[in-house]
Amino acid sequence: MASVRRRVLNTIPEGPRGKLLRARREILERKAEVTGRVRNGTVPVTGMVERFAETQVAGWVMVPSHTPATPVTLHLGSIQLSSTYPTPDGALSAMIVTKEDQGPPTAQEAAKHRRVVGGGTTAGRPDGRRNIPAGYEQRAFSFQVRAIWDYLSKGDTVTIRFGDQPLPIVGHGMFFRAPKKGRSDLKTLQQRLDKGFTLTQTGGIALSKRLDEEWQRRIAGIYAKVREVVGERFGHDVFVIYGTLLGSVREGGYIGHDADFDSAFISDHRTGPEAAEEIVAIALALLDAGLEVDLRQRVLHVHDPEDRKYRIDLFHLYFDPEGRLRFPWGIAGTRAYTTADYTGTELVDFPGGKVLRPKNPEPLVAHIYGDDWKLPKPGFHWSHARRDVADDGVLTTAQRDKVYWSNFYARHSNTEGSTFFGEVSKLDDLPDAVIDIGCGDGRDSCAFGQIGRSVLGIDQSGVAVEGATARAKQLGVGERATFEVCDVSDSEALGKALQQFRDQHEGSVLFYLRFFLHSIKAEVQEDLLSHIRAVARDGDLFAAEFRTDEDEKLKKTFGNHYRRFQNAAEFRSALEGRFGFDVITDQESDGLSPYGDEDPILYRVVARYRG
Asked: What InterPro entries does this protein's entry cite (predicted)?
């Protein structure tokens, strides 16, 4: 090797150019030598698998800084299931798999993901950093593994290797041995891998997105519709971003282990709150166009209404006043990207159909993923990869709930009054006038109208109010049951609506709130009850049904919207003490309003205003 090296160096000319070429050649030779020694197991690599849990395997290696990119591989028995390149300076302190767009993990989530498969511990310094010798660097890696346990039989091994060198697994030694039999086996896994299945970014075993033509076709249809609506209604290009952009640039199509389709638009606004408000409007426009939407804190999920498993993600981006492109979801790179870098979009070929892609996309990819974006990382996870995030563009609870309930009432309807209506309607002194606060699709408003009551239903969702109005007309109670859009968090609008309704009726009225108080924040509830007290007259009735703190940990049929669980006794005390009502009847129990597999614990209360 040395004699060959001398002969090669002797062919390089003298002078400054020759000196530079010699230095470059020596660096390349040292890298080649280290690469060979890593593959042969002769480089003393320090590393460890520090987290070995049901959903995630994560760890680090420490190598000489000039060591070429070398993969970490995940093995089940003799099967190499996945391979990823560890990232220099990756943070290990945040390696908890969470619902990453929902904010920090709850204590329950953190406890769940600290639980280690088959026993063992999670090691490492709390800040995820170690004493790194001069000339070395730490590289972090992770795999999402929630589905692999189904394929392991008792005694099957799991190993993680850097090059050919196994890495120790904290609490287990150089390998993990499965303690029990899963639902399938390694032979079946190999058969699926032979057919093009892969370990996905989210830890499942699924057909590669490069091969799943049905998925590609359905996704292309959703993307085309979103692109059309956003382009025509808002004037924005919807282009591929994140993993879909990365796949388009690096691989000419989908990344096989990717889990979804990522798209984005750039708002004309220059602040996060304005861009967030625009994606709310876009979500409602997509809903109006027949798509199903689910707005999260940092992204909008757009589903195929015929089959929710097909969806694309739409991200809102914006250039801030300094001209920097900002990402409420976040980026993993450190390079700047400004208005000078963005030159518009162009149509490019993509599996399933053409897509819009930013022109000159490589700088944007490097901005999002870092300079090592060309290296495949199936275990890449945003919870510990983010280096910068535009938190001011995060959607508020109120914004998300507005979209949630609009989507809900566009997809769900009931043909008769609720069980709570059934109980309240039996009251001997039921008022002739009812204001249904948080009326939703008008289910109970129409039911009150059918028994001869005059009803005003108010709700923040325009979709719900539109549906309720149509329902009332269809049932022949359109003259008795009317509806208005009113957000109860708007104190002025709420006060006006309540006062006008109360002034229109000389007799007693019923303030009716079914399944509503647990959907608003405590301060909004306080303001609402204060407004009711301000307009109420002697003899007016109050009827409410809501989830209590006893229901908090029970199974829920519907998720991704705000719920607040309060104590029934404390509510009654406030109703009687501060708000001037005498309780006629109340009850806290399950069995009051079961729905599917859910049987919530509810508090029902009927009270009379005493003046």
From this structure: Methyltranfer_dom, SAM-dependent_MTases_sf
User: Are both 434 and 357 inside the same structural domain?
Assistant: no
Least confident of 64-78, 306-320, 347-361, 406-420: 406-420
Examine the fold and report which residue of 394, 421, 439 is the final residue of a domain before the chain moves on. 394
State how far the Cα of 341 lies from the Cα of 515, in Å rounded to an integer: 50
Q: Quick one: DSSP state of residue 551? A: G
Q: Which two tokens stand for residue 575?
A: 């109703």
Total Cβ atoms within 10 A of residue 104: 10
Average pLDDT for the chain: 86
Minimal CA–CA distance to 463: which of 394, 403, 546, 420?
403
In this structure, the answer to whether residues 16 and 89 fall within a common structural domain is: no
Question: Domain containing 9: what range?
Answer: 2-39
CA-CA distance, 282 to 203, in Å (whole number)? 31
Q: Which residues contact 462 (CB under 8 A, 6 or more apart)?
A: 284, 406, 485
The pLDDT value given to residue 433: 97
Q: What is the pLDDT of residue 595?
A: 79
92 vs 398, residue with greater confidence = 398
Question: Over the stretch 380-432, which tens digit does the pLDDT of each residue have?
Answer: 878 778 889 999 999 998 899 889 888 888 877 777 899 999 999 999 999 99
Is there a contact between 501 and 475 (Cβ–Cβ < 8 Å)?
no
Indicate if 71 and 136 belong to the same structural domain. Answer: yes
3-state secondary structure of 207: strand
Instruction: Report percent pLDDT > 90 for the chain.
Output: 69
* pTM for the structure as a whole: 0.71
Which tokens in the block code for residue 225? 């519709």
And the tokens for 171?
């609490």
Contact 326, 317 (CB under 8 A): yes
Q: How many residues does the chain have?
A: 611
CATH number of the domain encompassing residue 436:
3.40.50.150
Q: How far apart are alpha carbons 58 and 535 in whole angstroms?
A: 60
Strand partners, 83: 73
Would you say residue 135 has pLDDT above 90?
Answer: no
Rg of the Cα trace of the chain?
A: 30
- Residue 563 CA from chain centroid, whole number: 17
Instruction: Please give the DSSP secondary-structure letter assigned to residue 338.
Output: B
What is the count of structural domains for the chain? 4
Q: What is the structure's pLDDT at 14?
A: 65
Q: How far is CA 63 from the centre of its chain?
A: 35
Based on the domain organization, do 419 and 560 belong to the same domain? Answer: yes
Q: Are residues 251 and 383 in the same domain?
A: yes
- Beta carbons within 10 angstroms of residue 607's beta carbon: 22
Query: Could you give the residue ranges of the DSSP H alpha helices within 68-212?
Result: 107-114, 186-194
- Is 387 found in the same domain as 442? no
User: In this structure, what token pair is assigned to residue 583?
Assistant: 């309780």
